[in-house]
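Deliverable D2.4 — example input (C-alpha cells):
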C-alpha cells in the first residue's frame, strides 16, 4: 500500500504548500488472463485490473506551465503550455504528454498543473504501467477540468490514441480498457472489434493467480510488437482474396482451417493461426469460467502459451523457462506468458496449498537456468481508475 502522507509531503516539497490541497487519483495495472495479441486484430481478450498501479497527486497552478515529477525516480520537468505537444526523450513523461496532446485535439485546453506520479507496478514487466499512467492522467485532468462530456470509454480510446500517435506503439485497446473498466473480482471479456464487453466473475475457489516477473527487460519489444502488427495486416491482405475482412478477428478457426493455403508465406500463416486459435480459446475460457471449470481454464492457458511460443514467437528463453518450471508443479493448472511478451511476466493458476512450493521451486529453477532472480506477486483483482478520498 502506498504511503500517501509521504507522497503529499513530497508534493509540497516539490511544489510548495499553497492553500489549495492537491487531489489524489489512482489507476491500476492489469494482467491478461488469456487472449494475447488479439486486441489489435479485432479479437477477444480477458484481462483484469490488479492491486498495483499509479497514484497521481495533482493541483492546478496559475503559471502557464505543466510540471511533472516522479516519486519513483529522480525526475522533474517543467514545460510551458506552448511547448506541450513535443515528444521528449524521457520515455515515461510522453504518456502524460500524449494525453494532454489528445485532449487539446478534442478542443479541451489543458491549463497549468503540478503533478506528482508514484507507481508500484514493476516497469516494463508487461503489467501495463504505461496504460496506468495514461489513464490516471486522462481521468484526473478531465475530472479537474470538468470535461464531463467525456465518458470512461472516451478516455480509454483517447489513451490508446495517445500511445499510437504520440508514443508510437501501435498497441490495441486492451490495456487501457482493463485499467479504465476493471472491476474487483471480475475479469473483463471484451470484443475489441465492437467494444462490447461483459464482466465475468472470477470465482477461483481454492486457486490463486500468481504473477511471475522474469525481470527480463522487454528489449526491442516495441519494434518487434509493431512487426507483429504488420505481419497480421499482411495475413489479412492474403485472406481478403477469399473473403471480405478487415481484421483477423473476424475469421473463425473453421474458416481459417479451410483457407489457410491462401497465405503463401509459412511464417505469416503461423501468425494468423495464433491469432485465430487464441480468439477461440478466449471464448472457451469464458465458458469454462462461467461453468466453474478451472481445470479446463488452466488447460487453455497452457495452450495459449504454446501458440505464443511456436506460432507467434513472442516468448523467449526466460518466459519459456518460467512457464515450463511452473507447469511441472503439482497444483498448477495453467501457466502462460502475459502481455506483449519478449520478457516481462507470466501468469499461473495455482492451487492455494501449492503457492509456497510454486514460489520456491519456480524461483529456484528459473534462477538456475537463466541466472536472473525472479519476483512473484499474488494477484488481487481490483477496480479500475478512480479518485482517492484522502482525509
Ligand atoms: C501489449 C499491448 C496490448 C496487447 C498486448 C498483447 O500489452 O499494449 O494492446 O496487444 O500487448 O496481447
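Example output (designed residues):
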Amino acid at each position: 500500500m502506498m504511503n500517501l502522507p509521504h507522497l503529499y509531503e513530497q508534493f509540497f516539497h516539490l511544489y510548495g504548500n499553497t492553500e489549495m490541497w492537491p487531489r489524489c487519483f489512482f489507476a491500476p495495472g492489469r494482467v491478461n488472463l488469456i487472449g494475447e495479441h488479439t486486441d489489435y486484430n479485432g479479437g477477444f481478450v480477458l484481462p483484469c485490473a490488479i492491486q498495483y498501479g499509479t497514484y497521481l497527486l495533482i493541483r492546478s497552478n496559475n503559471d502557464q506551465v505543466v510540471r511533472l515529477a516522479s516519486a519513483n525516480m529522480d525526475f522533474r520537468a517543467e514545460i510551458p503550455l506552448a511547448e506541450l505537444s513535443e515528444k521528449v526523450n524521457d520515455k515515461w513523461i510522453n504518456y502524460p504528454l500524449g494525453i494532454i496532446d489528445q485532449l487539446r485535439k478534442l478542443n479541451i485546453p489543458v491549463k497549468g498543473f503540478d503533478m506528482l506520479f508514484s507507481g508500484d507496478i514493476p516497469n516494463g514487466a508487461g503489467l501495463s504501467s504505461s496504460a496506468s499512467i495514461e489513464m490516471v492522467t486522462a481521468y484526473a485532468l478531465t475530472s479537474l477540468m470538468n470535461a464531463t462530456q467525456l465518458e470512461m470509454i472516451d478516455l480509454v480510446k483517447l489513451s490508446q490514441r495517445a500511445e499510437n500517435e504520440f508514443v508510437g506503439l501501435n498497441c490495441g485497446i486492451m490495456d487501457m480498457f482493463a485499467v479504465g473498466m476493471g472491476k474487483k473480482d471480475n475479469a473483463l471479456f471484451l470484443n475489441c472489434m465492437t467494444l462490447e464487453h461483459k464482466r465475468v466473475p472470477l470465482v477461483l475457489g481454492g486457486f490463486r493467480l500468481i504473477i511471475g516477473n522474469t525481470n527480463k527487460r522487454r528489449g526491442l519489444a516495441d519494434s518487434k510488437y509493431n512487426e507483429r502488427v504488420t505481419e497480421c495486416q499482411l495475413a489479412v491482405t492474403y485472406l481478403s482474396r477469399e473473403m471480405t475482412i478487415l481484421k483477423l478477428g473476424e475469421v473463425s478457426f473453421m474458416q481459417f482451417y479451410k483457407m489457410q493455403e491462401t497465405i503463401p508465406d509459412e511464417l505469416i500463416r503461423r501468425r494468423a493461426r495464433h491469432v485465430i486459435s487464441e480468439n477461440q480459446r478466449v471464448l472457451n475460457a469464458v465458458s469454462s469460467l462461467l461453468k466453474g471449470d478451472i481445470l479446463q481454464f488452466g488447460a487453455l492457458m497452457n495452450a495459449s502459451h504454446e501458440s505464443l511460443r511456436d506460432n507467434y514467437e513472442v516468448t523467449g528463453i526466460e518466459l519459456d523457462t518460467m512457464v515450463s518450471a511452473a507447469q511441472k508443479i503439482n497444483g498448477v493448472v495453467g501457466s502462460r506468458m502475459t502481455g506483449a511478451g519478449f520478457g516481462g511476466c507470466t501468469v499461473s493458476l495455482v492451487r492455494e496449498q501449492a503457492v509456497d512450493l510454486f514460489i520456491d521451486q519456480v524461483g529456484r529453477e528459473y534462477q538456475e537456468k537463466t541466472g536472473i532472480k525472479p519476483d512473484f506477486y499474488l494477484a488481487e483483482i481490483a477496480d479500475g481508475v478512480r479518485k482517492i478520498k484522502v482525509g
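The first strand starts at residue 23 and ends at 32.
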